[in-house]
Write a structure and sequence with these properties.
Distance between the termini: 25 Å
């Protein structure tokens, strides 16, 4: 049996997810169906999803060990540079789908198996380490702004809790789409970075200069009342996460009086990822990267993400 190096969940630890992470040898990926192929991974990136997996959220003990990682760029069996779309049809899952590292081994390994239809060409001008940031966090932000938030009808956007992968992507993409972008963060250093990107940085709960047409909400209970108060008539509040509480109080009188839309979303379609890749290549939009570490230091990459100090994406270079 051939083996490869991988980063995987070997146990669960709700309080210290890093203690559940193992870097070691795992069997080469198998192909569950004829239309699957093996991709040689060149670059990957981390998501908070990986930390939640180590905490035991979304996985059960009988699925261990599970190779982590949703995002990757690599080389297909024909030598083509490809971006992996990480959503896999999964009839046994209540959602009808799953993300790599949930039911199928993930991308934090030398090689990963995926359906051939999940491979998208790497556009010219996008490096593997940049493109590896896009399939999860940036795709989620793109769908929040475009498909769900209808950014083409908007002039202004509020992003709550910028710093994390999705929120920081929403800031960068909102600016690239030509919108006035406001973004909140508790951290003064992150507010400075937000300003450098070209957005208006605010402390959480601060009064905005105007009510906005789209609110990007990944924080949850801690910011949701502010999101409601900051929304213009007919605005869309798009929710893709709840890192600070999933049961906010909602002022329904404000919702109906202002005719607000509260929309949930998760990930995106292959077509939306194709649009995002083309948009980034054409408009020279590059992901906000916190750090790039070689796979030999993947444990440091997880520690960096877990620290809460990241601004943008933590990327793993599998060629270094």
């Amino acid at each position: 049996m051939r083996i490869m190096r991988a980063a995987f969940a070997s146990s669960f630890d709700a309080d210290n997810p890093l203690a559940a992470l193992t870097v070691g040898d795992r069997p080469e990926p198998t192909l569950p169906q004829d239309d699957w192929v093996t991709v040689q991974v060149r670059a990957s990136s981390l998501n908070h999803h990986d930390l939640w997996s180590l905490r035991g959220v979304g996985l059960t003990g009988d699925q261990l060990p599970m190779i982590l990682g949703c995002d990757a760029v690599g080389e297909d069996p024909d030598g083509n540079q490809v971006v992996i779309y990480p959503v896999i049809p999964t009839p046994g899952d209540p959602r009808g789908m799953s993300i790599l590292s949930e039911h199928f081994p993930g991308t934090l390994a030398e090689r990963v198996a995926v359906p051939r239809m999940n491979l998208l060409p790497l556009p010219a001008g996008l490096s593997p380490t940049d493109a590896a940031c896009l399939p999860t966090a940036w795709l989620t932000a793109w769908r929040m702004l475009t498909t769900r938030g209808r950014a083409e009808e908007a002039e202004s956007v509020l992003v709550q809790g910028a710093g994390g992968g999705v929120a920081t992507a929403a800031v960068a993409l909102g600016l690239a789409l030509g919108k006035r972008v406001y973004a909140t963060s508790r951290d003064a250093g992150k507010r400075e970075r937000i300003t450098e990107l070209g957005a208006t940085a605010l402390e959480p709960g601060a009064r905005l200069p105007e009510r906005v047409d789209v609110v990007i909400e990944t924080v949850g209970a801690a910011t949701f009342d502010h999101s409601l108060k900051s929304a213009a008539p007919g605005a869309r509040i798009v929710v893709s996460g709840a890192t600070a509480g999933h049961e906010p109080k909602v002022n329904l009188r404000r919702v109906f009086a202002m005719q607000l839309e509260i929309l949930g979303t998760s990930m995106g379609t292959p077509g939306e990822l194709t649009e995002l890749l083309a948009f980034c290549a054409e408009h020279e939009v590059r992901p906000v990267v916190d750090s790039v570490l070689p796979f030999s230091r993947v444990e440091e990459a997880f520690a960096r993400l877990h620290s809460g100090e990241v601004f943008g994406k933590v990327v793993v270079d599998h060629t270094a």
